[in-house]
Amino acid sequence: MHSILIVEDEAIELETIEHYVPWEKLGITVAGTARNGKEALGKLAELKPDIILTDVRMPIMDGLEFGRRAKQIDKNVKIIYLSGHNEFQYIKAALNIEAAGYLLKPIDMEELFALMEKVKKKCEEEQLAGQGEDWVREKLLVRIIREPDPEKRGEWVGKWEQSLSDIGASREFAVACVTFDAPAAYPASAAQDSGLAFADRTEWFRSIAKETLANFVIAEVEQNAQYVWYPRKNGSGAAVAESSFWERLLERAEGSFDTVITIGLSDSHVGFDRIWEACRQARACNDEKFYRLGGAVITPADLKPTKQTDEDREQTAVKLVSAIQSGDAEEVNRQIGSLFATFREERINRNYALRAVIRLLSAIEQHFSALLAGSLKERLLVDDWREISAMSSCAHILAYVEYFCEELRTAAGERDVDRNQNVTDRIGRIIAERYHLPLTVEEIAKEVYLSPNYIRTIFKEKTGETILDHLTKIRINRAADLLKDKSLKVREVAHAVGYENVSYFCSIFQKHRGSTPNEFRKIFL
């Protein structure tokens, strides 16, 4: 990111420019602000901004004098002048001090965006020109990978080709995507790597790569990911030697870092305009780690189709709830392990697997709502989706679900032995297992050997809702899920959740969801 110093004597305008211009979207951070040229000059050496946006007319020291002095301190800083005075004398004076641009008040956002892009590009070109060859290539590779616009990416590819004039564009090349992930445990250990810190990994990797690869370029695009571009060697044994190199590197890296290392390799490509495609292919191979239990070297030949399916995991939720309630840790882990083994073996698409996990956790949370409102109330603040969507593999998500269930199992075991609570839990299980039947309070009372009025009282006391309200909530939630299946008629959905009278079902559904079943389908499908 580039940095900017904003200089403006009007407090309101200064605040507006600092806080209401989307600087982050522009790839710029606000290093600081000042109310006049003298104050800004005092901050210049400390902040070292890439860009200065300064008003022309200010007290004590105006923008033009400040600009002249700023250029004496840092000849590379880019200065943009801002003024409400559309007069030639100001523009001419600004141009004489090598102004990077000139904006009129009030600021037009489109003009600001366009000018900032030009200034950033100029900054980057000067940075590249002032660095060594290896540094330039690494930065160019980063920009090629990150640039979403094909036309702009083509410009960076052109500069890349110029920087590699010693390697012909017809030379075959490949890309490796190397990622470093924490071991599959939740919560993650706060301990540092037993070997080198992340900041030293690039240098470590570079020293190892020199043994086999030539003219390679490493780009650190993400905190825990490196892309390695390298020209392929000629000769019949080159491919085997390269494959052996990556396997050896994986072994050595795993001995140096307390992390799970995955190396995704692209196919051979020809033509520098294929670099972005090669990087995407290497990343796709690396993403295959979602189905792996440990580090690996993965090639395009290892990739297989994934299955996009939203299968019903309700029975898994029921079994997990039962195991948690009974305190059976072994059964809890067996059910979780079986679910994630299915994800891996059937190669369930990552997004579909994540959705299945979220639905599973929601179902369990719903059953233990009273527990979560008590000793585990802090658990309600956790955003499960944000937590698991950032995880790189099934193994990491499995560890999260195991931790989640163990928290519930422990809390449930430590809960005071309460007969009424046990009865309430049993009522909840009966409803969860038989909501699709024409269930009544009287039938439930017979199951628990108590009177209907008594179980109504204790259930409301323990959960804050009536038995009928709880039963209705379970039925309507299930109906909402079933309505997402267009092949089912509303009548079939009603019967599947325990309502014989379709009109009554529609009335209850509208009361709870604010729309009829058919309207619900139109809104959410």
From TrEMBL:
Its main location: cytoplasm. PROSITE patterns: HTH_ARAC_FAMILY_1 (PS00041), HTH_ARAC_FAMILY_2 (PS01124), RESPONSE_REGULATORY (PS50110). One of its GO terms (cellular component) is cytoplasm. GO terms for molecular function: DNA-binding transcription factor activity; sequence-specific DNA binding. Residues 425-523 form the HTH araC/xylS-type domain. GO terms for biological process: phosphorelay signal transduction system. Residues 3-120 form the Response regulatory domain. Pfam families: HTH_18 (PF12833), Response_reg (PF00072). It is found in: Cytoplasm. Keywords: Cytoplasm, DNA-binding, Phosphoprotein, Transcription, Transcription regulation, Two-component regulatory system. The keyword Transcription regulation applies. The modification 4-aspartylphosphate is found at residue 55. PANTHER family: HISTIDINE KINASE-RELATED, TRANSCRIPTIONAL REGULATORY PROTEIN HPTR. This is Two-component system response regulator YesN.
